[in-house]
Amino acid sequence: MRGITGVLLGMLFFLAGSSTALAGSVDGSDPKLPPPPSTDREYDATIGVDFDGSGTSPKGKDILKGCAIVTNLNPEQLLDYLGGTGQDLINFDPANLPEDTFFHFISCPVITFGNINWMVWEVTDPVPRPVIEAVALAAYNSAVVPLPAPLTSPDGTRDIPLITQLPTWYWTDSTLWQPGSVTATIPEFNISVTATVTPTTSWWDPGDGSTPITCQAGDTWTPGSNDNDAPCSYTYTNTTQHDGTSEPYKLTTTIEWTVTYTCVPANNCTGPPNVPGSIITNVTRDIWVTEIKGLITH
Questions:
Q1: Residue 4 has what pLDDT?
Q2: Where are the domains of the chain?
Q3: Residue 111 pairs with which residues in a beta bridge?
């Protein structure tokens, strides 16, 4: 950025203490002003894999909704626009703005870029990191993470219970155990950020008081499978039948999904600040366990 840097930084620090009503309207009748700002955002808010059943979103809030965005402002338009949005420009010297410089402007009602909720930069400069972080947060908020149900063999239902002393296979639907992505974009700035959630580890709590075991997706049991080859299994030693009654165990699958970000363009690519790098999901189901008593003869 050329000599405008010091002026704009001074303006940013000065206006940080001014009015917070930064997304005001613009009088379209003034020929010097740009068109009214855009407020529509674009999302591909569908997980990159198909899944039946339910999912979860980290936040679910469209933080870019209502943002005022204008592009290619010349210095005169920039000053008029900032004035039209309620900025106090006293002590600001517009003479230091080169006439051949153009600017981008964004103002959002629920986003802060540093300690203010608007930002301005030269069109020839990379999109500032705080703007990238805001778009990354929008992608993160829009991600839908599937909730794979814990599957077992036998089924573990009341009619087809698990058997004590025999390994129980654990697994999740393999079509859900794969990365999924969601993209948020600001077309006016030609930028987009894609948040990708990837399952990495699962923990299975058998529900009988034992320590959870650590696996990944596991393998689907098929007829002829060797119990010794189960990548994720557990052997129950107690049944769910007590004193003539049967109360199911609560089998819980916990999956950790890591979150990574890719940006177009790639400069200043970063995830949102103060946001966890992983998402944890939990799914619980009832299972029944019985025993098969053998008959010993002499």
A1: 36
A2: 4-290
A3: none
- Give the separation between CA 223 and CA 205, rounded to whole angstroms: 25
Q: Is the dihedral of CA 266, 273, 72, 11 positive or negative?
A: negative
Q: pLDDT at position 51, please?
A: 44
Between CA 150 and CA 170 the distance in angstroms is 7
Separation CA 45–CA 40 (nearest Å):
15
Are 166 and 153 spatial neighbours (Cβ–Cβ below 8 Å)? no
Give yes or no for residue 136 having a pLDDT over 90.
Answer: yes
Torsions phi, psi of 83, nearest 5? -65, -40
As a whole number, the mean pLDDT across the chain is: 77
Q: Residue 11 gets which letter from DSSP? A: H
Mind giving me the DSSP string for 228-242?
GG-SSEEE--S-SEE
- Residue 170: is it exposed, middle or buried by C-beta count within 10 angstroms (0-12/13-18/19+)? buried
The pLDDT value given to residue 236: 95
**Confidence at 252, pLDDT banded by 50, 70, 90:** very high
pTM: 0.77
Name every residue whose Cβ is closer than 8 Å to that of residue 81 and which is 6 or more positions away in sequence: 26, 33, 34, 70, 73, 105
Neighbours of 293 (CB within 10 A): 6
Hey, what are 291's tokens? 């025993």
Q: How far apart are CA 156 and CA 233, in angstroms?
A: 13
The whole-angstrom distance between residue 297's C-alpha and the CA centroid of its chain comes to: 62
Reported residue count of the chain is 298
d(CA 275, CA 282): 19
